[in-house]
Amino acid sequence: MLARPMSRNSSGVTCFSTNRNLVGTYVMDWNKLAQQDFQPLAFDTLEEGSERCRVLKATYSDPSSILQWDLESDNEWSSWLAQGLIPEVDDFEKGLMVILAERRDDESKAHNYRRLTSLPWSQSTFAEIVTRMHINGSVISTINGGDVAMFTRTYITRQTDPISAIVYNCRTANAWPGDMAMSVTYVPATSSTYAIVLGCSKDSIDRISRLLSNAGTSICHPLLLPRLLVELELHRHDNLVKTGLTQARGKKEEDMSTSTSVEQWMGICQVQNKLTSWERQLLNMADSMDELSETEFAKIVPRDPVNKDAVFRKTMQEEGAFLRDRIRVIATEYEDKIRDCQMIMESMSMATQMAHTKANMEIALHAKRDGSQMKSIAVLTMLFLPSTFVSTLFAMPFFDWKPDHGRPTASSWLWIYFVVSISLTCVTCGLWYVFVNFWGVKRPRRKPDYGEMSTV
């Protein structure tokens, strides 16, 4: 058996306890090739729940006949696990065993990026599932991750025998609802695959079941499930980009300076970054498919109709090439989606600039209108200024228009008025000239003293 209750011994096998409230310990004897012990599974970061899950079992000999179990409560799981329906590696040749775990149904609340940590089982049931399904301990870090998309491949081996395995972990970004996590353990010696998929919706469970029933001989390829996850993620990302395009087209220029528009621009920028990250993971996935075809499935290259192992490996090479080509096509589609996001951001930036330009033009028109009004006021002032001066001049007491005898006369002190007026006018004009040409314009600006600033 690959997993059995035990404690740490001299060989370095590490057991883990799920929680103080759980009875017993569980051990996983998979170790990294670097001979580093697994850290205890951090079950304390996970939450318990009870949701419907589906278990699927398929074999290479009859891929169309898939066994299916729908389980929900802990009692149902305990009864099912007690029947020993999960085959051991030595007894499971060329087959797939996968658990599709449904996400907690909580649509009434807003999206919670930590919701994937809410398991559809109790911690004790999950610990036993991890043990029976030979799932690597890194699944915990995969569940707790999600800030960025990830796809990893790790070669591991058991300490009890020389059988090695390959662990594939895949995680989609949790920036939007519908993120998923997956851990796949593939044993090349028996060509058996054990996998667990977390965060499934009811629709995705049915869709994955339907796709697996039509997968044919590719059912035994270890990267079939990651490829199906890519298909589901493509649908989710396609909706995000279409929503962004619709919102961008519905925006008017005057709406681009609002806080809502800024948030939408930042949201599209986030989508672009996440799509770019996911595209890199797709290329890593395609490289892993090539790696499998060049290593594990290339040990017997020619197709020998008598040698069933040769036929199987050649078939896996062909299926891997098909899966790789599909992944690369999807990666090309993501390049188009990234360009769409960039186009949305550029169009929103251009619309914002046009809105600002339109506002500046309106300000300039208002300023021009105000200038025209001031010009009109100046013209009117010039028209009435001579008459105002004449009326003010003749209203002064220097003139006597109705003397008691004789004709109207002017005072001999009239010259004082002209002298004072002309002098004040010359002084005012001179001060204005000096201020404009020598003080206000030509006065050099004082450079900042950085030495004084550094001593503060």
Automatic annotation (TrEMBL):
This is CorA metal ion transporter. It comes from the Eukaryota. The chain crosses the membrane at residues 377-399, 414-436. It comes from Coniochaeta pulveracea. Keywords: Membrane, Transmembrane, Transmembrane helix. The keyword Transmembrane helix applies.
